[in-house]
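[09:14] KT: can someone run the structure on this one? pasting the chain below
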Amino acid sequence: MKIHKLGLIPYDEGMKSMRSIHTCAVEDGHNHLILCSHPNVFTVGQDEKERFTVPTVKADRGGSITCHTPGQNIYYFCFQAKNPAHFYVNVIKSFEEFFADILPQVQYDRKNPGFYMQNRKIASLGFRYSKGVSLHGVALNVNVDLNFHSQVAPCGLAGIIPTSLHNERVYISCEAVDASILKILEKRFV
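[09:31] RB: done, C-alpha cells below
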C-alpha cells in the first residue's frame, strides 16, 4: 500500500490529487491511500437533489451532504476494487475494528452508510469506482468544530447530529488515529 500524506489541502486540490493518484493506481496495480484534511467545506454527492441552507460543492461520489473541516481525518482510497462489494466490506470491517478498540458503542449503519453512536454520526463514507479502482473514501471526525458541522444534519438525515472522538471523550490525536487505521488497513488489504 502506497501512502500519500497531503496534510490540510483545499477540497478542489484534494480532488485533483485523488484523480491523479487514481490514474497511478490504474496503471501500477497497487493500492494507494491518501491521508488529508480539508478547510471548512460542505460537499454534496452526485445523486442528491435537496438544496441546503449552506454553500456546497458538488462531488462525484455517492451520498448526500458531508462536512469537511480541520480535525477530521480523511482517507481517500485509490484501491484495486475488481469486486467493489468485497472492497467495501473490507473498508467497513477495518473501521469497525478501529472503533472496537477505542469506542465500541460505534456501529456501522447499512441503511444510512456511516458510523454512528445512537443519533450521533462520527464518520461518513462514500465511494465511486472507475477502471477497477476505487475513489473517495471515509471522513472520520477526530477533533472538529462541531458548531460548523451542526449547520446541517449529517447526510441530510433528520434527527442525526455530528459528533467526534474528542466530543465522546476519546482524546487521541489525528496522527495517532492515522497510525491505528494504517496498521489495520495494512493487515486487511494484503
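[09:33] KT: thanks! The mean pLDDT is 95.
[09:34] RB: yep, looked fine to me
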